[in-house]
Structures are given as C-alpha cells and as structure tokens.
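hi! just following up on the protien thing from before. the input was this:
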Amino acid sequence: MKMSFFGDHKYELIIGCIILIILLFTFGALGHGGMESSPGESSTEGIIILLLIIAVIFILSHMIKKLKTLPQRSLSIIIFLLIWEIAVKTGLTYPAPIPPVSRVIHDFISIIFLEKFWDYTMVSLQRVVSGYALAMIIAIPLGFAVGWFKTLELYIDPLLQILRQTPVLSLFPVFIIFFGIGEFPKILLIMLAAIWWILLNTISAVKNVDPFLVKTARSVGVSQLDVLRKVVLPSAAPSIITGMRYASTEVVLVLVAVEMLGAKKGLGILLNFRYWEVLVFMAILGVIANYTLVALERRLSVWKEEIEIG
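and the predicted 3d structure came back as:
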C-alpha cells in the first residue's frame, strides 16, 4: 500500500473534513455581523479562505488519484504564506507597506467579482495571446529551417545572435514613432519577448535529433517532408515546449512594462491601484500556463519515446 504525506490517505480526508467543520462554525459566527467588515474581520476571513484552500487540497488528494501528491507539492507554498502572515502581523516587515496574506486573499476574492477587473484582464490576455501566437508562427518554422539546413544557419545565425541581444523594451519608443500608440506596437514587443526563446530552442532541438533515426527513415525511402514531420518533429517537440515555457515568463514581464508605460487598459495599469491582488492573479495565471505546458511537454516526451522505440 502506498503511503501519503500523513502515512495513509484516509488521514488526509479526515484532516480536510475537520478543517471544513471548523470553517462552517466560524463562518456561522461571522455571519451574524452583517455584510460590512472591518480590516480585522477581513483578515480573519482571509485566513478562513486560506484554511478552506488547504481543506480542499487534502480532500481532493484523497478523492482523485492523480492528485495524491498535492499536499506534498503544496506544502512549500502553505509554509511561505504562513511565514508571510506571521512576519507582517509581528511587525518584522515594518516599515515596508506589506499587507498580511490574509488581507490580500480577502481583497483578491473581492476584486474578482468586479466587471472592470475582468475587462482589464481580457485586454491583457488578448495582447498576450496575439503576441505569443505570432512568435510561435514565426519562430517554429524558422527554427526548423535554420536547424535543418546548415547553409541557411551559416548565413542567418550571426544576425540572429545580434538581434537577440537587443533589449526588447528599448525598442518601445522606436515602435511608437513608427506605429503610433495603438495595440500593434504592444503586440509586437510581446512577440519579440517570446520569439527568441522559442526560436533558439527549436533550432537546438532540430540540430540535436538523433542522426540514426534520420538515416534509418531515409534508408527506407521516407521523403524529406515525412522525415521532418514523423521523426524530427516528435523528437524536437519537448525542447520546443521548454522554450515556450521560458518565453511565457518573459512575455508577462514585457506585458506589465508595456501596459504601465503606454496603455489605458490592462493588468499593468491595474497594478497601480490594486497591486497585491493583481500580483496574485498574475501569479495564478502564470502557474496555470506553466503546468499546462509541462503537461504538454510530458505528453510529447511520451510521443518521442514511442517514435524512438517504433
């Protein structure tokens, strides 16, 4: 029998249920105070929400087999949040204006119900998706071409090495002069932030494909296009996804900077007014994007192994 974080999965379910029972009584006690809450009460509600998250983690880890390691994987985050809460409440962070995590959680829950918040979020997501998609459309085919054809690499690699050293944000004033203050220069900068990670990883992945697989495919009469599609692509895909993961981090940094410098809407603008809440939200989006790409990378790694075995 496999043991869990607490020795047996049944204890995770018991702990989760106990926390939920405590929360029900606490919510009942708070419910008599009306809808308005003071800063102290909102901090209490934030702590309750944090406990609720922990309870859900334990219960899900018991009910869903794929999430059985969730308590262990969440432990470092929970400890970090507790240290944050204790450090602020005991004055260790003074005079830095850092709110307790309980207050941040409470305020975060409140802003996600605001229409303006989602309006600004959708504007930012449209910019990210547009720029990121353009980067992939350009970088992956170009990376395959440069990595596969050595003559092309000989001519184009010096230019790529020079261009990738140029700080992306330093181009913002130039883009504004040529393209104005609209959406296009913002999307272009986001594309440039993502393109280098994807392009260079694609080139490296294609160049490092096992030559034996390529020679074997060619020896049985497989066409050049099919070699690229059936041999090179599966072998290179995990490294390309890794480049996409690194690119997603770079994209977020550039998005925030661009929106703070020259935008009327977006999460970068909202950071000026609801800093901690937006920071938490952007971190959550980043984690979701990262784990989505990690899952895709693992799936493609299995695909690569199947190709190599076959």
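The chain has a mean pLDDT of 78.
The longest helix spans residues 224-262.
cheers
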